[in-house]
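Example 3.2
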Amino acid sequence: MNSFASSVTARNTVVVHRRLSRGHDVELVETNRRGHATRFAHDAARRGVDVVVGFGGDGTLNEVATGIAGTDTALGALPGGSTNVFARTIGLPNDPVAAAELLAAGIDEDRLRPIGLGQVNGRFFCFHTGIGYDAAVVAAVERRAAMKRWLGHPLFITAALSTWARGYDRDDPHFRVVTSNGTLEDGFFSIVLNTNPYTYLGNRPLHLSPAATLDRGLVVVTFRTMRAMTILRSLFGALRGGGVEPTAELDEQVDLDHLVIEHERPFPYQLDGDYLGETERLEFHHVPDAVQLVFPGPTATS
């Protein structure tokens, strides 16, 4: 668990722990810096623990998945962050206490199956990697990390507007995207998806591509311009639930096993909502059956 995550409190931690402990031995481990959850999860898998549950934001869950990928230990998700994209994508409610009921039911009923993960430069991701503008927005939010717990989505919207207006070069392309289908030389903003939706605005999911599922290859959506009308049109389409519509300014490629995003000048990227800095090259792979996932049970067990 990450006690600094937006929705994690002392009270709901006790309730969640109590619920998961019915019929199971549960060990609670608290993280306090980046990388902790990966180390703890890897150690748990080495010891033969059946399930490791990430209780925190999407970054905490990503670290747990990275620590247990390729082992027999299963991954459980509990929403404790401000957005909780992956937990909500697999059908969990955004409230951690309600989610614990369904997660416990899934564990009790052995509702486990293997899922594919994305991998970039050797690191796994559960739902997406953002390159360019998207990552610059996440970096702006993380510079105000103390406010994130209290402001949540309004902080992201403010960061998106200020980054577009004065924090990101809208004139020159930032990278090229290389796939088996060819090369795009003029990338400004790409999202490599392992699942859909891309994120949530409050209770509204932003559906970029219905082709992004846990059972298929990766999807890359690339904006080839930073024109406001192109971005807003795509945003409205995503909010309507149909996904983005490819155009000359917006490229979509699906079912990819491998792709490369690169440039001579460093560009920013984020992975499952965590800003990881700048790089000149990202190499992506889709890894089928990378981890066993606990899916929520249909009803709570007593």
